[in-house]
């Protein structure tokens, strides 16, 4: 006894569409005999025929899924080749003490926190801010991404959690913390609109010597 596999209505419809599309493409690519009429120098009508193969029809581009997105890049390690963002609070504190510069510690969620991403784009990644901070601040960055592909190393997770335990127990994002060279928290702020100019004005209010 022979067995005939069953085909669901949906699958049958899809297969039918595929056959129709294939037949349509073959029909478009088939050679066509075309007759043309021209006149010679004596005014006589001359009929000619030639075989024409239509140009292949370009297929439509594949749609890009709106759900596919690239991971956000926030606070590059070296914004201008000279300004470095540290990812270890202890190292930042040691550098601040040695240089007598205040620390700017930034807490972000680079792949889920929209204000964090805007903050980075409008302020921290700008060359103007890098130039301003270069000889004035010790920069530290602690990122808390949620997507698995963006997770930092286990060692970095410990450093981030240690920094948060000291400076961001409330879990605020984004958060910028200004710390004196001696380790005293001077101010905390969230997103500040206005780009580098507005953020620099805020820093000067907190630390007038900047």
Automatic annotation (TrEMBL):
| Xref: PROSITE patterns | THIOREDOXIN_2 (PS51352)
Q: One Pfam family for this entry, by name?
A: Thioredoxin_7
Q: What domain of life does the native source organism fall in?
A: Bacteria
Entry keyword annotation includes Coiled coil: no
Q: Which residues form a coiled coil?
A: none
Q: Which residues form the Thioredoxin domain?
A: 64-210
| Signal peptide location | 1-27
Keyword annotations of the record: Signal
Record keywords: Signal included?
Answer: yes
**Can you name this protein?**
Thioredoxin domain-containing protein
Instruction: Name the source organism.
Output: Hymenobacter sedentarius
Taxonomic classification, please?
Bacteria, Pseudomonadati, Bacteroidota, Cytophagia, Cytophagales
């Amino acid at each position: 006894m022979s067995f005939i596999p069953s085909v669901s209505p949906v699958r049958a419809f899809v297969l039918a569409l595929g056959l129709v599309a294939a037949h349509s493409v073959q029909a478009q690519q088939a050679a066509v005999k075309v007759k043309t009429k021209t006149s010679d120098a004596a005014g006589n009508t001359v009929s000619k025929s030639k075989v024409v193969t239509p140009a292949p029809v370009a297929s439509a581009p594949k749609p890009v899924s709106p759900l596919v997105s690239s991971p956000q890049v926030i606070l590059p390690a070296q914004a201008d080749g000279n300004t470095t963002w540290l990812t270890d609070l202890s190292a930042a504190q040691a550098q601040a003490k040695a240089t007598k510069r205040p620390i700017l510690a930034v807490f972000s969620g680079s792949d889920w926190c929209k204000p964090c991403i805007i903050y980075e784009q409008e302020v921290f990644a700008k060359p103007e801010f890098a130039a301003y901070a270069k000889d004035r601040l010790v920069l530290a960055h602690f990122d808390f991404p949620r997507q698995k592909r963006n997770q930092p190393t286990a060692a970095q997770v410990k450093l981030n959690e240690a920094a948060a335990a000291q400076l961001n127990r409330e879990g605020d994002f984004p958060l910028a913390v200004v710390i004196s060279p001696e380790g005293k928290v001077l101010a905390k702020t969230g997103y500040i609109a206005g780009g580098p100019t507005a953020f620099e004005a805020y820093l000067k209010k907190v630390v007038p010597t900047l």
